[in-house]
Amino acid sequence: xxxxxxxxxxxxxxxxxxxxxxxxxxxxxxxxxxxxxxxxxxxxxxxxxxxxxxxxxxxxxxxxxxxxxxxxxxxxxxxxxxxxxxxxxxxxxxxxxxxxxxxxxxxxxxxxxxxxxxxxxxxxxxxxxxxxxxxxxxxxxxxxxxxxxxxxxxxxxxxxxxxxxxxxxxxxxxxxxxxxxxxxxxxxxxxxxxxxxxxxxxxxxxxxxxxxxxxxxxxxxxxxxxxxxxxxxxxxxxxxxxxxxxxxxxxxxxxxxxxxxxxxxxxxxxxxxxxxxxxxxxxxxxxxxxxxxxxxxxxxxxxxxxxxxxxxxxxxxxxxxxxxxxxxxxxxxxxxxxxxxxxxxxxxxxxxxxxxxxxxxxxxxxxxxxxxxxxxxxxxxxxxxxx
Length: 387
Ligand SMILES: [Zn+2]
Ligand SMILES: [Zn+2]
Prior knowledge:
- This protein has about 375 residues and is of the alpha/beta class.
- It has 12 helices and 17 strands.
- Helix 4 packs across helix 10 (about 325-335) and helix 7 packs parallel to helix 8.
């Protein structure tokens, strides 16, 4: 029977001893196995995973390894379960936890820092100095589920209470998986200065973070918001999420288009979400002198950067990692208030057992896929039975 020291459970949410879990073998290889259901410790809960979205970073981890780090190294053949953009229901409480109730629906952010390093103490837990140190003699208690500890491509996972975000009944499972994506966009905008009302913003790259970056910037009052990209179907969704203008960079020069659309001037902020090789050089030419650029995507190769232009024009560059400083809670507040409809970027749902198909849709953008979600079938049946 499922139990652990000081762990509270409820007969309304019976927990099995074992669960289905996908594990990473060699690069690109995922296998469906059985694992014990994990047991929450102090300040942790057990989450029954009701839905998990696939992120471009998952694809990166599954094929190449970083930024995942398991036992201080590559994540392959270590019985590691990836997946980090999930939501679900709290079904067990670790010792002393009274912040959440059994049966409560929540979504999660990724990073529970160590809580003791300088950056964690500053609220920058996504930049924890003890990243990945959670084993053996170097166990600092760091958790980033799906990166340094087991993630969400399974049926249950333990989460530190600091990573939980309560969600309202009216928010669907699929929408709730997008809170952390909106939270990453929110973190970028708040790190750039936060008060973007009336300021001009360009978002480059209409992937999930870019599209929700448009939505968050608009919800924060930015004007105009310009989205650049190469796919008309995604640019159209950007318009629906609030972009004042969209630019297909296959048809015109991105920097010239931005200046034309902004009255001949550069903009105040650029949020770079494309990872394109020349993206930084374009971004620093899209901003005005003294403008700020947030880098939220990474190119695969090292790329030459025009440093002289950046220095001469007093341009600020910010690299952001993840969804720090509780940005996810601010994003959830916008979504609960229906300030934008994040579900416009959710395109497909598959059962958990079909994860490889779901990954193929996300990777190859089959059928114009943007956000692909997987759900454990058994969970859906449980919920029907419980109601
Ligand atoms: Zn992600
Ligand atoms: Zn830390």
